[in-house]
Amino acid sequence: MTNIHPITFKKAINDIIIGGCSLTELAATYNTPLYIIDEATIIKNCQLFTHLLSEHYPNFCIAYASKAGLNIGLSNLMASNGIGADVVSGGELYTVLNSNVDRNQIYFHGNNKSKEELALAIDHGIRLVVDNADELHNISRIAQEKNKKALLMFRIKPGIEAHTHEYIKTGHIDSKFGLPFNEALPLIQATSCSDWGDFIGIHAHIGSQIFDTTPYMDLVAILVNFIKTIQEDLNVSVKEVNCGGGFGVSYTKNDQAPDVSDIILAMANELKLLCDANRLPHPKLIFEPGRSIIAQAGVTLYTVGAVKPIANHEPYVFVDGGMADNPRPMMYQSEYTFDIVAPSSDHRDTYTIAGKFCESGDILAKHVELPLVEKNQLLVVYGTGAYNYSMSSNYNRFCKPAMVAVHNGAPRILVKRESYKDIIQYDAV
Ligand code: LLP
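^ thats the input. predicted complex w/ LLP below
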């Protein structure tokens, strides 16, 4: 067992058990494709952050990056583990507001929040992470109209190049997100002198699926420097510093993801050290992990519909989902680990796993070695907890699968399977 599998993963005779539940039985009860979420893995991953920081940096908040996967059940699970939320849209904010998450632990990001989204956040006293000057202008008008004070963080571009996929880097200076220091400073000044905004702190996020620890340490140093500038130039103190998320996870045995505990502990210690050296008070420290909390907790279960031999080529295994429930292989060339739930033979072969969508590129993986695959078998994909359901689509009018949480042998539905009726529900006739 590796950290690719949920922590409750067990092989049984002709079955795989997760969260005490048989995958064969889950498929029989809920049908496939099916997203399965192991609650114990989420709880363990949440506690990894909260226990470590409670001991070493008690003034902290963990805001789960809900873009990785969000529904009311998941949000309640995070809340019951003391975790808040990072949201990036009105829809995510609305979902989280309908859950038990503490409103003081919600951070609203985004480079182009609409006026309605800003108003929703201001109405509920949610911290807004300001991306640009036009947005701040909108915030000031809305807050004044409502006679309320907006709680404001500022997103900074730290100028850090983290080594990850081009589409998921965000710290570099030409990133669409955030402001360079010199442009943020006057906006922070304007906010702190205003009666419509409460300046709370600064935020930076350098990217996602990051394996290298150096950029995180650089980030802390850069942010402390900026905290010092804000203090010295504006005489304004920074109460909160949000270092974002992005901690990498292992999807296959070739991945060597670093231990997230080591990174956050090193960052917390560095923050204390640098603040002390600069005679600055210790700000509240916020992290926004998404993938590192939920990726490992999720698996996707498919049924094999057909195995198609191809002359001089590895055979195709056709599953009953694909790019609509997991667009990541197509978008980011992401790799996953696969298995057959109940193998019928010891013979192994190498396959291309293809989805059912009407695109030649709808391939989940190539060169996957598996026990002999036959039609009607169940195929499981590990590590699909993050950015799978949340990036899924109705392409080809596909009905999105159900999501089931499993814990101590009991399954419970988090999201229902869509039906054909759901698919046509917004069609105006
Ligand atoms: N905070 C901010 C401001 C973010 O933009 C993100 C991710 C996170 C936190 C959480 O990052 P995580 O800990 O999950 O790596 N769809 C892509 C990932 C996009 C990430 C966008 N921002 C994927 O499937 O790999």
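The chain has twelve helices and 20 strands.
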